[in-house]
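User: My instructor asked us to take a sequence, write out its structure as tokens, and then describe one feature of it. I'm not sure where to start. Here is the sequence I was given:
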Amino acid sequence: MHDPALAKEALADLPADIADSPLFNADLAPVPQARRNWSTYNFAALWISMAHCIPTYMMAGGLVAVGMNWWQALLTIGLGNIIVLVPILLNAHPGTKYGIPFPVLARSSFGTKGANIPAVLRAIVACGWFGIQTFIGGEAVKTFVEALWPGYAHLGGDFRLLGLSLPSAITFLVFWSLNILIILRGMNAVRVFENWAAPLVLVMAAALLIWVVSRAGGVGPMLQQPSRFATVGEFWKVFIPSLTGMVGFWATLSLNIPDFTRFGKGQREQMLGQTLGLPTTMVVFSAMGVVITSAAQSLLHGVDASKLWDPVIILSHLTSSVPPPGMAEPLIASAATRLIVAIVALLGVAIATISVNIAANVVSPANDFANLAPRLISFKTGGVITGVLGILMMPWKFLATADTYIFNWLIGYSALLGPIAGIMVMDYWVLRKQELDVPELYRPNGKYGHFNAAAIIALVLGVLPNVPGFLKSAGFLTGEKNFFDELYVYAWFIGFGLSAALYVGLMKAMPLKKA
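Assistant: Let's start with the prediction itself. The structure tokens for your sequence are:
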């Protein structure tokens, strides 16, 4: 236990025998009431800082690239985030009510040992996301370094480290280290960082929007670009997998949101803060990406338009002494001004990426890995494990193409996480009527049992229908398009609904003791 004082406070509200339980440590303990100090602003800031990241900015671009117009793309993003907000709020409730994190909450539905199954699945997805975000941040740093020092791009020649060039490997590891340093400071450091990161990133994005639109003399051509879909049927074939991908984007947080809401002052604060913070920010920030990219197409007409969806590319042209293609002069004439803009832009991208990475991709797996061996693995140790696995998974390969990112990554892992969310929601809201016996969650031989067969069976059966479609999408299977391929694009919805229904039915047929 890394914080004896916190452990002592938590144990004051628990029976004495819990102190010796192998399922207990300070990081997994219920948060004492005195330490539940997150306000509405804290929760809104958490989502604002997590949503203000480069993948969110580029999200609408991916939808426009597959044929949507700007408002169809924003509608899809908004609807997807409203849908995923429902399981987020449902699973957030027990975190605030009982002060417990996700892996401890999962013990009520999966059993005290069985909870490791959803915890590890969630942790693996988080490790992949950690690597993706760290790679994006590292590449942003590399882009700015190359703009100021062109020779950096050629360091190491053809040398490769885990598939990365030497310049990419260096900036990746530097960015990785910054993430780990912050998480080693603990959860309070995360709260403080998210609080000031949220408004800063928004202000910097707004500044870029104003500058690009004013310099381009308008919002550009994209807002007049029509949809490529002539019929509703054509649109539907793209809309559904895109919507599933949008839900999948935050399907991770729909499980581990108790890791944050356990620090909330009350249900009103967490519900209002999350409702204000998530869907609104995702739509507004995506819309800013649309306008900035559209204006940049007018300003940087000699640059490949598909590359302008990446804000780092736009910023690199701003800070470079080399004129953009088709222009005679650099966008910013003064070398001193370019240097200032480069530093400010680099800080903005770094803060945006680190804030989402720590909150979304380190907090949960750190707790999940701690749940595997609470006496041996602390929150901080779990964070380091996450960072190491994030490197070994080489997740930059998930970003190789848009199809790989959306169909193999976003939809693929949503097929795993949707069933878990369905089981947890049904267990807490339908079967247990929001009543949990907290001490029993820390007793290996308590009423929740080691393994809940109903939850495990429901999880497996909820995942199975999506396996053939995933294998086909990932290239492991070939053949004509069939029923399972059509089913796969609904992966999260199929998994959530099927596992939820199966779990309730199986629990009635072979129930465990219920709190």
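For the description part of your assignment, you could build on this observation: The chain has a mean pLDDT of 86. Try explaining in your own words what that tells you about the chain.
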